[in-house]
Amino acid sequence: MINLALINEFLGQPPNASEHGYQIDHILEFAHWFMGALFVGWSVFFIFVLIRFHKSRHPKADHTGVTSAISTHLEFSCVLIEAVLLIGFAIPLWAKRVNEFPPTGDAVLVHVVGQQFNWTFHMPGPDGQFGRREIDLVTNSNPLGIDPNDPSGKDDIVVLGELHVPVNRPVIIELSSKDVIHNFDIPHMRIAADAIPGSLIPMWFKPIKTGTYEVVCGQLCGLGHYGMKGTLVVDSPADYQAWLKERAELAGTQSAPPTPPATQQPPPGAGPTPGTIPPPGAPKNTNPPGKPEQKPAEPEQKPGGQ
After folding, report:
1. Domain boundaries for CATH 2.60.40.420 within the chain
2. pLDDT of residue 258
3. CA neighbours within 13 Å on the CB side: how many for 38?
4. What is the mean predicted confidence (pLDDT) over 33-53?
5. Is residue 262 over pLDDT 70?
6. Euclidean distance between CA atoms 244 and 198, whole angstroms
7. What is the Cβ-side half-sphere exposure of residue 78, based on CA atoms within 13 angstroms?
8. Is 299 helix (H, G, I), strand (E, B) or coil?
9. Alpha carbon of residue 245 to chain centroid
10. Can you name the CATH fold of 108-255?
11. What are the φ and ψ backbone dihedral angles of 80, each rounded to 5 degrees?
12. Is the pTM of this model over 0.85?
C-alpha cells in the first residue's frame, strides 16, 4: 500500500497525523487510481474512435450507430464501482465520524469560533466547565462575550490563533462563527467542517504525532480569506500540562478586576460640587457653596412716602 499511497503524496496530500486518517487516505488512494484508470481508458477509447470512424475510412455516414453492447457494459461497470465507493466506503466512514463520538471523560473539549479573519479557541479551566457566553458582552478585550460574573468562566482559557492539545487523546471541537460561514480545516488531521453563525457543529479527531500543524479556512469568507490561518500544536502530556498551567495563570491574572479607587464621602450637610446634579436622596441645600445668597426683592417706594 505504500507504493499505492505515493499518488496522494504526488497530488499534494500532507502526511497523516490522526488516528482515523489512514481510512480516509485509503479511500483517496483508491479513488485517485480509479480516476486515473478512467482517464487513461477513456483517452485511449477517444483516440480509437477518432481513427476508427474518420471520414477517410467512412465517406458515407452510418446512421445505424454502434450495435455492440460493450459500451453499455463499460458504463454500467463505472457506475457500479462508483456506487460501491459511495455506499460501501464513504457513507459508512462519514456516519462513523459524525455519530460515534468518544466519551467526554478523557477527551479535550474545545469551542472554536471563527470570524473575519482569525480563529479563537475557548477551553474550560480546571473545573472542566465552560463559562456562560452572551453576545451582548462581546468586546475587543472579551471576544467571546464570556460573562465575568459566572464562576465557571473565571478559569476559562481563551487563545487567539493557536491551540494546544495532548497527543493520543481525543479532541472534541464545537464550531461556530460570529459573522459569515467559515470552514475549519486541519489537513494533517484529515478533518474539516463548516462554521455556521448561530449553530454549533461538532467534530473530533485523535492526534497520534506530536508537532505543529496548520489550521486553514476552507471556505471563501472575504478579502482576507487567504490569511485566515491558525496553528495546532500537539504536545506530549507533560508539555501540555505545562501549557495549561501557564495559560490558567495568565487567564487568572487577566480576569482579576482592578480595585476601584476609594471615594471620599462629603461632610454632612455639604452639597454637591457646583455645576453637578445631586444624587437621589441627597439633602437639599437652598444655598449651595459658591453661589451668592439671593435676597427677596424690596418693594419700590413711590414719591411722597406712599
Report:
1. 108-255
2. 43
3. 13
4. 89
5. no
6. 29
7. 13
8. coil
9. 24
10. Immunoglobulin-like (2.60.40)
11. -65, -45
12. no
